[in-house]
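Customer ticket, subject: "Can you confirm the structure for DNA 3'-5' helicase?"

Message body: Hello, I'm evaluating your service for our small team and ran a test protein. I'd like someone to confirm that this is what the system normally returns, since I don't have a reference to compare against.
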Amino acid sequence: MDAMINLANSCPKFRYKVTGEISARYILEAFYSAASFIENLGLDVIHAIKQMDLPDDDPDVDFFNALAIFWSALDTQLESMNPPVLTFNKMFAMFGERGAANLRAIPSGVLQPMTTLLIDEFQDVGANTISWVRATFAEIERRNLPVLTDGPGSYASLMAVGDDWQSIYGWRGSSPQFFVEFNKYFPAPATTRVFMQENHRSHQWVIDAAEAIVKRTGGFDNKNGKAANPRVTGNRVPVQMRDLDFTHLREKATFHYESGQKILVLYRIGRTKAAVEKYLSGLIRQAKEEGREADLKLLTYHASKGLQADAVFLLGDCEMTTTSPSKNDVFRQAQMGGSDPCGYDTSQRQEALRTAYVAITRAVTYCYWYVDRKEGKTRAFEKASRHVDPLLDCWDVVPSAAAQQRAPWKAKAGRRAGSRRFV
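Agent reply: Thanks for trying us out. I re-ran your input and got the following:
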């Protein structure tokens, strides 16, 4: 009886895997993740679920029907608390284009700072943020709020800073679409586009190797990074791609550490960290004892964004292995991806390549990329490593062990005169 009472008073803890997700989650986490994605696209969860066009036999139909019930109950529960609790998405929605009337209650003094707005990392914003900014500017224009300047009067302005090639959070609802099509979402009498193409981190071959992959995603025309770090502009060290080899990783990481260089060891999947810590345990301990912990960092590709190191070790390919009917559906409802019926899937194909670009360009001089070049039982829809061209000087593709066994005379393929290769 006690067990039955406990069941009636506790939340369910079974796991559920929505089609297209990598793994199963506890049901409440799955609910929250799915609802947050919908809200990040600027949609109302309940309305979006009602508008879904999933087949009747889709395995996730019952999940989304249950989500609609849960989300309504959660909203009611949060609003009934004292004081009421609001999620970030709910606050954006309250003052976005769907809640524009609420902005009329905001004092002009609160809106005034928004008349001159700068948004960094613009490639990572979601539709809910865009809707809030658009609604705010519309209200500023309606009130004809003056822009406070030391000179003549001016209009409200927005400066967006970002890099569409570094947009890697589409899985949570962000999109570079708002940045690339800026004039569509923020029409103005005049706009100024400034390309900041000087790269003050990496040498040219690192830049070229990364761009050779990411250029397939489209974006702005005539966009090419130019090495501008005087410490490394003359370097000609190719990015090396090879089979996953923890012994090689340990040897090279030790070499670069003992040379006094900073090191980033990055992994695509979080569970890889345990293996890295095992093989680099001695070096990690040494760095701690010598007070050089900042010189040896272990992070995921996503967490490394904005960082740099002399030598970067990348573990794992950037790939897209699933399709998501439900996310394609809400993408369509949010008018993302144009007329593409699989807009979300297409965005994830591109994001795999952008993630590789971000990871490679953490390197100042040396970059080693360890990948499994074999296809799994089910061929991935996209893999960044497929787009590595071994004929480019900026790449040093070490033949896989299997390839060397099949054709040992090709083991030195890709090593050309004039290129500084390393093993």
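A couple of notes from the result: The two ends are 67 Å apart (CA to CA). The first strand starts at residue 15 and ends at 16. Feel free to reply with more questions.
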